[in-house]
Each structure stands twice: as C-alpha cells, then as structure tokens.
Design a protein that fits this description.
The structure is a homotetramer. By secondary structure, chain A is an all-alpha fold. In chain A, about 75% of the residues lie in helices and about 0% in strands. In chain A, helix 1 packs across helix 2 and helix 1 packs across helix 6. The longest helix of chain A is centred in the middle third of the chain and has 24 residues. The first copy, chain A, starts with 10 loop residues before the first helix and ends in a 7-residue tail after the last helix. Chains in contact: A-B, C-D. The interface between A and B is large, with 47 and 46 residues. Chain A binds a DNA duplex through helix 1 and helix 3.
Chain lengths: ~200, ~200, ~200, ~200
DNA sequence: AATGAATGAGCGTTCATTCAT
DNA sequence: GATGAATGAACGCTCATTCAT
C-alpha cells in the first residue's frame, strides 16, 4: 500500500522518519489533528516540506501510522502483563493496570486515540482496535462466568463497561488532574469488580 | 457574547435561527465539525451566507451554542428525573437512566458533545459541564456514604467512573449497535452499583 | 455538473464569469494550459483566488467549458454556412471555408482545441467532437458518391483527410505565417477536391 | 550545449542513457510529458534520481533529445526511401509512405512529436523540423511543376497540405483505429495526388 | 557513477468571514 | 433581513532540481 513501503531507506532516513513521527505525535496531541498542519510539523523540525512526503504518503497516512503503532504497543503490553496468570479475574485486573500504565507513559498516544475515536475519518479504525481489546477482556470474563465466579450473561457488555471506565478515569484523573496512575488503577479495578458498593469485607 | 446578543429578533428571526441550529447540528453530527462548512449549512437551507452571520458571530460560536443548549437540556432532564426522590442511590440510578434516555432521543447532540470533549477548541467547555454533572452524582454518593450505605472515600472518583461507563455503553450499544436504550440502562445501573461480580442475591 | 449549475447568478456575476472565461482563454492560448495557473488568471484580472472557484469547479472544468463552447460555436457556423445549399460538394466547400473563418476569428479557441487533442486529459473529448464534424462531411461525400460524382469507397477516410489538411494549413499559414484566411481557404478547397495535380482545365 | 556533452561516458554509461531514453519515451507517450515526473522515470527503472541528472541536464533537455532523435530518424528513412528515384512524383509518394511506416513502427515517437507541436515549450523546435521535411517535398513538387506535370503556383502550400493529411490520417486510422498502415498509405497518396475526386481513369 | 535525502517554490483548492447592494 | 460576490490566508501536496555521501 503505497510507494513508501518499497522505498529503500538508510539509517539516516530511519532517524528522520522517527523524528517526524515523534514531532507529529507531539503536535497532534497538543493542538489536535486538524489544527496541526504539515507545515507546522516540518517547520518545527526545521526541514523542508518535501521531507514529509518523502517518508509518508499523506498527513492522514502518518496519523494512521501513529494510531496503529500505539494500539499495537498497548496490546503487546497487555499480553505481556497477563502472561502466565491463570486466574481470569487477575488477568482482567492486570490488563486494566497495564492499560493505565501505558497511557501514563504515552499520554500523547492515548490522547490521539481518543480524538481519533470521535473523528469520522478514523473512528472505524479505532473502533476495530477497541473491539479486539474488548474481546480479550470478554474472554477472561467468559472463563470466570463458566467457573461460576461471576454471575452475568453478557461478558461483552461488561468488558465495554470496564473499557469505558478505564478511559474516563485515566483522562480525568491522570491526564487531567495529574493524579498518580497506580492509585487511579486501584480505584479502577475496585470499581470494575465491585461497583460503587465496593468490596464487601 | 457579542453584537448578536443585543440584536432585536423578530418571530421570523427566531425561526430562522432555529433552522440554522437544527441544520448545523444535523450536519456537524453527520460529517463532523471540521468537515462541515458554513457554506454547507446555509446551502442545505437554501439561504445566503449572510444569514449565518446575521444570527451567529462565527461557526465556532454556533457550535458552542449548540453545546451549551445540549448540556442545559440534559441537566434539566436529570433534575426532573430525580425530583422528589429521597433515596440517594435511587437518585443516582434515575440520573443515569435519564442521561441515557436523553442521549437516545438526542443522538446528534450527544455525538457533538463527545467530539467536543476531544477537540482542543471545545474540550475545556465540555469538561466544565461534565464537572457539574459529576458534582451532582458525587453529592448523592456523599449522602449515601454518610448514611453508611456505601463504603468509599472518594465520591468524585466514583462519580467519574459512572459517567465514563455511561458514555461508553451508550456509544457502543445504543449508538453503535442499535440496542434498546432501556436495556442498556439496566446493565449500566447494575455495573455502576455492583461491578462485574454483580448484585449478590 | 456540480453545485455551480444550480447557483443563482446575478448580472454582475455573469459578467465576472465571462471575464474569467475570456482571460483564461487568452492565457491558455498564450502560455499553454499547464503553464497557466489559476493564480495567473485571477491575478491578471486583479481579483482574489476565491472568485475563480465561485464560478468554476476547477481549472479543468473551466478548460472543458471553453472547449465545449468553441466546438459548439464552430458547429453552428458550419451548419449556418451550408444551410440551403443542395449541392453536396458545395456543402463541403462551404463547411471547409466556414471552419477556416471561425479559426481565423477565434484563433485562441482553435489553438486550445489543438492542444487539447494532444493532452491525455482532454483528447477523448476533442476526438468525440471531431467525429461529429467528420460525420457531417462524410455524409455530404456519401451523397456525392451515390450521385456518381465522386469515385471513392471510403467517405470517412476522405473526410478525415480533409479535416487534417484544414487544420494543418490553418495552423501553418494563417496562424503561423499570417496569410489571409480566404486565400488559404481557396487552396484548401482546391487541394481537398483535386489534390496536387490540381483541377483539370 | 551543457556539461553533459563534454562528459566522457563509458560503454555501461551509454547503456544507462539509452535505458533512460527508452523508458522516458514510453512514459511520455503513455501519460504525457507534464504528467510524467522524473521520479516516475527513474523509479520505473529502479535507479536513483541522481542517475537522471548525471546523463541529462533537465527533463526538458531529455525530451528535446528524444524529439531530435525522432526527427533525424524519420528524415534518414525518408532519404533512404527515395534514393535513386528520379521521378519527383514517385519521390513524394515514397516519402509519404516512408513517413507512415516510420510512425507505425515508432508510435511513441510520433505521438511525442504531435504533443510537442502543441506545447509552447517545444512548438518552435517541431515547427523547424517540419519546415525541413516540407522543404524536401516542396523541392520535389517544384521539380514536377517545372516539368509541367503539376499546375500549381505554391509548392510549399501543397507540401504542407500533404504533411497535414499524413499526420491526421495516421493518427486517426493507424494509431486510433488500428488500421493497416500500408492501406492507409494508399489512401493518403491517392488523396494527396488527386483529391476527393480521385484519379481520373 | 550512483544513491537516497532534502529543498522550496509553486500548485489547485478550501473556507471562514466581510460587504455592497 | 438577506443576498450573492469577493477576499486571501492557509492548506495538503508535487516535483524539478541539488547535494552529501
């Protein structure tokens, strides 16, 4: 898909490309996709406009690249976090914690994902990625349901509820209020498992 | 906040203004704020461009107006829904249900709010409106905590968790999958109160 | 084919549109289509760039408009020239003369048609228009053949030969060398009817 | 004219240069001069951009080179075709036939010549080449006129008429409709000598 | 000889906004 | 109140050309 994939790129080229990705990510997160022009990105790097189009087919293509990279990275972290854990409920907890950790370490990426989810150009792509993450959680829930540990008939609904809570708490308290990510993760896990009434002692 | 507020507007003028708001809302929700031009809006109404600037200072001002209207309407519905209810937990439940009902009846408005929350131009305004809604829920929670019915030390965190769940379940299942709003509201309330483990019988 | 067709245009607008067409025709003929930018056209008229796109969907659309106008005008002149003439050979002669006259009076248009015939973007359109003109001539030839006045089995080939001669003589002698169009038309007619050997006395 | 002419070129260099010429000719004919970028040419050959500018001063210079080569080749073929023929009218006929044969065997070159004749950048050069070809034909015609075999006072006009017919018939029937070049040449010769009325038996 | 990287002016096009009528 | 016309800065993108390696 695109000449860019077949172009031979030198070490110097790889570096430039990474610079572009980094700078674009920063600017997109800071000002938004639509308010960041290609001129802004290359200007901020002090290079000519042509450089951008040497490495990417379009502004949109670069954004999609950033998005994909972020979603893949998150997924890898989640997989790593639950590796070896046999308890499905612990797997859910570890997955939620890994997500908040990732977002905390990659605040710009997570912000771009949020934006993309609400822009007609990118919404579908984000939704698809989200479905995958939700399916993972739902699988753990299903296992817990079958083990009789959770009484619910709709693991997908539950999974979505968790993902929604996760996103909102992260945005509000970590990103917005600067609270410690680990503490927020504690509250997130507690809410997702026991709701407002909290764990019965 | 400008010349438009001081302009005397006739009955016919009010109608025109409403037409503009309605059409803009429809188009913004359908194609997105950035992809909808002022020309689209007036063109779709078959009127000249001057009309738009007669009633609104700018495209941004119109969007803010739509946003404010929506948030006020939602708040009014929530207040009406809990009026007379003395049980704080029931008040929370009724508030959540009222929110989903509003979003179901005003899908375009709720979509615009989502967009606005992720656009640098409008995010602050949305956040402020959200804080108000959260404060309401948090007040009910505080009451329940003081009554010893809920054991938690951070009602604001809980309230945000609920609002996040609400938004995501609505988007995914009502808006996205076309499920019945009342059923989704049932699941939402259950999750918010009891979490994944569900109500203990 | 687009929004432009449905736009209400005032008398002033019609004038502007005509100015654009005239100026663009002049510049296209002088510098060529690719070497004439939209900025050149509006700059030459002393108006803003937006004016261009108020009246035309694109630079290409404007060029096509000019082309179509020219071809229609030529056809109308040819039809008028042969109206009432019953002798098919005289009809051919009158058509050829009308064409040279048109080109002489509209040198810019005829140059644009030549350019367009050799540009991949417009070649098909020109070819189609040419086929119509050729069909007219071929019909007259067919009539002459059936009357036993011309001995040839391929009127379409003959018609194309004439059209090719016409274009080249016009370009070389009228457009290029500034010779009198009527005299060139005499030679054209003579060559088309009798070839190099000339009319036998 | 230009540094390139003084550069010593190895055998391998000659090959590269020819590859560039061949590929550029193909692409120019297929997509047009303006729509074919230097990047297209070198990309299609799988070499770097520097190669292009090692062998040619500019895109324009390459095109001019192709043009010149083509015109020279055609002239050589025409000269060879009439060598030894003493009858001036036969020389004309043989020249016309040689031209169609050349165009048939070098369709890309002949298409480029057509394009160049209508582009402000190259028109003059083509015109000059054409004048030479026309002068050849005109010389034969002059000879025939002096021998009393053709009654006409303007051999240059006649020669241009022939060249115009030639080009148009080739384009329409050989290039466009795929007809056999030899048959078209028959019709061309017949038309040029006897016109529409045809040879008197 | 040859490469991939870089330049930057210029392109066609859009669009929020203003304004004379 | 309302219109169609006009503005012009800004946008995403292209591409002939140059250059360090």
């Amino acid at each position: 898909m695109g000449a860019r994939l077949t172009r031979r790129i030198t070490a110097r080229g790889v570096e430039r490309r990474n610079q572009l990705v980094t700078e674009a990510t920063r600017l997109f997160a800071q000002r938004g996709y639509h308010s960041t022009s290609v001129a802004d990105i290359v200007g901020s790097l002090g290079v000519g406009k042509g450089v951008f189009y040497w490495y990417f087919d379009s502004k949109e293509a670069l954004f999609v690249h950033i998005l994909r990279t972020g979603q893949q990275e998150l997924r890898r972290l989640q997989d790593a976090a639950i590796a070896g854990e046999t308890d499905p409920i612990r797997r859910i907890e570890l997955g939620l914690r890994a997500s908040i950790t990732w977002a905390d370490e990659r605040p710009e990426l997570s912000q771009l994902v949020q934006f993309a989810a609400n822009d007609s150009l990118f919404a579908d792509r984000v939704r698809r990625g989200e479905e995958i993450a939700v399916a993972d959680v739902a699988a753990h829930l299903q296992e817990a349901i079958e083990a009789g540990r959770i009484h619910h008939d709709d693991p997908v609904m539950l999974a979505h509820a968790m993902v929604g809570t996760l996103g909102h708490l992260y945005r509000t308290f970590v990103q917005g209020a600067g609270r410690d990510a680990t503490e927020v993760a504690d509250d997130l896990v507690s809410f997702c498992l026991y709701g407002a009434f909290g764990k019965q002692p």
